[in-house]
Amino acid sequence: MIHRSKRLSAVCRALGLAGLAFTLTASADQLENKTASDCVAVSGVATVRADGGLENASAATVTVVCPVDRRSPGGAFTTFLAGRVWAVDRNASAGVCCRVVSANPGSGTSVESAPVCTSGASAAVQSIDLPEINDTYSYSHFMVRCDLPPAAAGARSRIQTVRNIQR
Fold first, then answer.
1. Which domains does the chain have, with CATH numbers?
2. What's the whole-model pTM score?
3. Scanning 17, 61, 120, 166, which has the fewest C-beta atoms within 10 Å of its C-beta?
């Protein structure tokens, strides 16, 4: 991908279309996967697993926040954030629900996607696709926030990997 982008830039410069090369390169999605162990519980207690997952062993829902490093390709911060979370939902009454968030420290406001939840209890990993948000304020910070349902008959729900997609 990088080689293709460099070739495209060179071709556009040769044709006098340097602005087009920057636009095409800068608009490419920036993807990053992080282990769920980077997330922090903001309500309740979450346990880090040996495989990097983060699980809820308690009898109450636990909310976790997963930091996202906001990118600045070409010197300008990304303004769009979407995501995907891989989760295991072991609670038949409540799902693992996540959303992407951009928080503005100056105004105290945030932009949040609608929550998206797992589709039912299962020991298998499910992927949760999080819809895109847009925040043009360069001093806002990005995160993924998830609610892990209570343990059910000893079975613990968890998140495993958190992907952020920026442009």
1. 30-166 (2.60.120.260)
2. 0.82
3. 120
